[in-house]
Amino acid sequence: MSDYLLVRRPLYGYIVSMNRTDRLLAIVLELQNHDWLRAEDLAAKFEISKRTVYRDMDALSEMGVPIVSMTGQGYALMEGFFLPPLTFNHEEALVLAMGSQLMRDYFDHEYKQAAVTAQQKITAVLPAQTKNQIEHLQQFITFFTFQHSDDVGQQRKLRLLRQAIFEQRRIRMRYNKRFEHEVSDEVREVDPYGLAHLVTDWYLLGHCHLRNGRRVFRLNRIEEVQLLTSTFEPPIITVHDWVNSSGERPVTVIKARFAPESRQWLDEYRPYYLVAEEETAEGVLVTLHVRYEDEATQWLLGWGAQVEVLEPESLRQKLADIAAEVAAKYRGKG
Which residues, 6+ apart, have CB-to-CB distance to 89 below 8 Å? Predict the structure, then answer.
């Protein structure tokens, strides 16, 4: 029989891969949570044969696990035997449960499986009272991530990029640019340093050999990822520090004034390029640091008449032109 098998987990409905060592631990946890379990019960639980159950029980006994067997009742752990419990308080246990939920929703299928099995292992050794409280709280606290976790192409890119980051291997990829002044559909070689999830999207951070500098690439614009044999030495900087600093990025400064009544709504969604704000008599003066003016154009347009761009003049003119085009369409002149 293979060292690996597929086990159907009732929790979340996922099929997860389990090797024999993990299965032996899972069997002990099952026995710890039940008075008696028959070979048939364990075989059905782990989708293995009864003969394999017998072999697993022999292996556990040889490892010193005190297993008692009784005809008609099955197997049980000797009274008093237990695995050392994990001592989480209610808040810590809830954070772990919610964290595994986020990992299931944000990452690819491989990490989704790992998140499921990790939560199962943690839950299995929690006291019944804590376990019940977590299940109760999960009915009232959840995350809506709006992730397309079933996108096969997205999952494949995440797997390849994660592998390249771990192995410090250069990649070749095709990148589709958004803005008119940029060349679209470029083939690039990149040293991938890290992945960051910002708001609703994944971004790759790395050194671009085409531009000879550090760049950030949006995952849904990356295509045809290939792992190369060339390796690299990553810089001594964390992804968190990189995301929160301008680093080597060229910066265009935009000044805009928001109407006073939009103040509370401005706090609800702050783009990463909003770096400063100041309360004034006329409203809220904000400062944006972007690579290109177009990077903030759609966000600014979304505020309508609630915002006025003060500088640069080129962006003021561009927004005025766009507003005129929109007005013409709705007045039947487009």
Answer: none
CA distances to 16, 215, 233 from 236, rounded to whole Å, are: 36, 16, 9
Domain that holds residue 204: 152-243
The enclosing domain of 161 has a CATH number of 2.30.30
258 exposure class (CB count in 10 Å sphere: 0-12, 13-18, 19+): buried
d(CA 328, CA 287): 30
Taking only the tens place, the pLDDT of each residue in 233-252 is 988 777 777 666 654 556 78
**Does this model's pTM top 0.90?**
no
Task: Give the closest residue to 308 by CA, choosing from 281, 332, 284, 279.
Answer: 284
Instruction: Say whether both 64 and 99 belong to one domain.
Output: no
Structure confidence by residue, pLDDT tens digits, 193-232: 998 887 678 889 999 999 898 888 889 899 999 999 999 9
pLDDT at 119: 78
| Other Cβ atoms closer than 10 A to 134 | 21
| Amino acid making up residue 324 | A
- If one counts every other C-beta atom within 10 angstroms of the C-beta of residue 158, the result is 23
- 119 inside domain: yes
Give me 196's structure tokens.
């960051």
**If residue 121 lies in a helix (H) or strand (E), which one and from where to where?**
helix 109-124
CA distance 59 to 29: 15
